[in-house]
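Quick one: structure for this chain?
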Amino acid sequence: MDVAARTAANRRLLADFFDGLDESQLETQSLCSAWTVREVLGHSAMPFSVGIGRLLWRTMLARGSIDRASAAIAEEQARRPVAELSGLLRTYATKRVPAPGVGPMGQFTDHCIHLRDCARPLGLDTDVPLEDWRAVLDWLPTKQASLGVVPAGRLDGLALRATDQDWSWTAADGSVVEVAGPSEALALALSGRSVALADLDGPGVATLRKRIG
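Got it. Here's what it folds into:
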């Protein structure tokens, strides 16, 4: 898969999605507990509107927490008009943005998951293609993904299987404690969205639920 091309396509998809929402929808709580749908847009456009210097300064104010700094900046950016933020996603759709630790696949995954973070609570079926979810699922069990997306140990002893495409993964210990379901729901659950657990089946769901908390 051409990660750069798919990332660009998904930025444009996000822009179209957010442009189609009304004020009530924008103020809906997303699956990210700290953000509304509008603030997820602010976060998604942040790499194209906030310089590294500002991010470092806010990180210092947040006592070294880049997560808290990013959350605060996303909330600030969300106050800008939706058209401005979606315009940034389109204008810089092909721009490669440094992503220390998680790399290009981390950014790609971020867009896929955040789209559903917003679409699910709104009852909308806007989604990325199955092949995108396949790439996300291939990446989520990796060590790179454990640097902030899937905490170490969350997948220990589990076997994962997608029911909407030919994809599966088994923990290194060869466990057969299965978690099965649609690719989108698997990806959301692995990245900590407990609401997606309702769409999954198998004896491993209870284990995954405890680990997500």
